[in-house]
Each structure stands twice: as C-alpha cells, then as structure tokens.
From TrEMBL:
Coiled coil: none annotated. It comes from Pontibacter qinzhouensis. Residues 8-137 form the Transposase IS200-like domain. InterPro entries: Transposase_17 (IPR002686), Transposase_17_sf (IPR036515). One of its GO terms (biological process) is DNA transposition. It comes from the Bacteria. Gene3D superfamilies: Transposase IS200-like. This is Transposase IS200-like domain-containing protein. Signal peptide: none annotated. One of its GO terms (molecular function) is DNA binding. PANTHER family: TRANSPOSASE IS200-LIKE DOMAIN-CONTAINING PROTEIN, TRANSPOSASE, Y1_TNP DOMAIN-CONTAINING.
Amino acid sequence: MQKSVSLEPNKYYHIYTRGNNKETLFRHPDNYHFFLQLYKKYAASFVDTFAYCLLPNHVHFLVQVKQEEALKLQAVPENSAKLISVQRQLAHLLNAYANTINNRYDRAGRLFQHRFGRKEVTSEAYFTRLIYYIHFNPQHHGLISDFKAWPYSSYHSILSKSKTALQREEVLTWFGGREAYQQQHKEHANDFKTISPFLEQDEL
C-alpha cells in the first residue's frame, strides 16, 4: 500500500481498500447504499469523484482532492483557519461503516485490511485506463459476465441525466461524449494488460 503518499490538494488519486483477509464487506444490497451514503457524508465535500466501484470485498475510487480553500474549517478556536485532513475523513468513513456492520451482524474485530490505499494518477493515459479498470472490475473478478450489469459502479451514473455528485460532465467531455464513452468502454472491455503497468500489486 502507498502509505507514504499524502493526499494533496488538486492532485488525482486512485484510492482503494479491501476486507481484512478478503472478508466480505457488503453482505446485502443495502450495505452498498449505506457505504455510499457515508462516502457522501465524510468524503464527497473534500474530493471530486470521477469513478467508483464497490465489490463484495473491495472498493475503488478515482478522485481529485479539492483546492485548499475548499478544505478549510471556518469555525475553529481562535478564529484561525485549519485544514481538514482528507485522510482523516476517509478513516472516519471506514470506521463508521465497520462499526455499523459489526453491530448489525454481531461480529467483532477488524473489517478492513488497512486504511484506504492511494496512488497518485500522474498521466492522461493512467486516468483514462483507470476509469476502464474501475468499471470493468466486477467482470474481471468473475462476479458478472457483463460489467454494465453491475449496479454498484459509476458506469451508468455517468450516463444518466439524474442528479449526481460525480464529475459526470468532466468524464463525458474527457471521452468525447456519451456515445464515445460507451464505445470506448466496449472496445477496451477486459483489456487489463493496458492498465497493469500503472498499478501497484495491492491495487489489483
């Protein structure tokens, strides 16, 4: 895991985590929705989200940390501005989810293998292929025969016209529009060889 990499304003990151010992994180459809609600509560105000996928025992997000001005707390002691740690917000997210799951399913102990791993996205090629990779993950892991049928990723949310916190227009513009977005996903389906050189072992 990329423990030494801090989440810095304006930079793009692949963030990810998995269940401890590959334990299932999401036992029921409601669990997926609850995790996304917590993500919205703890993280969405501090990062712009371009893609995500939740799988039974691991999760992936492609984000950009917002500018420092957007991360400042105004109401703090001595009227001094203070930066919120995005890492801390992500830790709150994982802790809140783990506590709820432990209580709901009468389990104890560590739910996640580690805090969110992170790797900076430093090229346009990595950014593009990472979106493919995130959306194709359920098919890659044999959970479903067609990634488009997986309900817990951002693939369809980006195509939808309903309200979303995703950076939908930015993603569609990046690919050249809705049709190009769909066509390029189709053309690159399961093309994991093009993304693997960019990934660390624990991102796979």
